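Side project, low priority. Logging it here so it doesn't get lost.
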Amino acid sequence: MRIILYLTVLISVQICLGQKEKSIRDYIPTENLDMRKDANRKENRGALKRYSVIYRPHAKNILYGNPCALEATRKMGFEYMVESRNATRSASQLGKFWNNLKVKTKLVVTRSPFWKMILKKKFKKCRPQSGDIVG
């Protein structure tokens, strides 16, 4: 009986010691937490990824502002930009068309010819998680 008790205590101690403790850096999404002078210099920063932009005249069916949908589009390598036709300082209609054509062609080549259907399926999963749809 003592041997079983001794082995149980020994195993539980090893399990407790084997777990990794999380530091505050695991919970905070900032790039750099060091307080030194050169902490936020360009050479010390992590690589920032640039995403391609698809211009949309309205926010219909793109779940604009939904964090799950934003993450899904960023994983595919682009973001939606809602921009009305008569917004000041906006690109011309022809410029938006050529930009969208370039980005969508890139998505067909890099992701899949069915990238839009895959994204719609992900959006359907994102809607109930964030409360964008009732039912």
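Brief comment: Residues 93-110 form the longest helix (18 residues).
Revisit when time allows.
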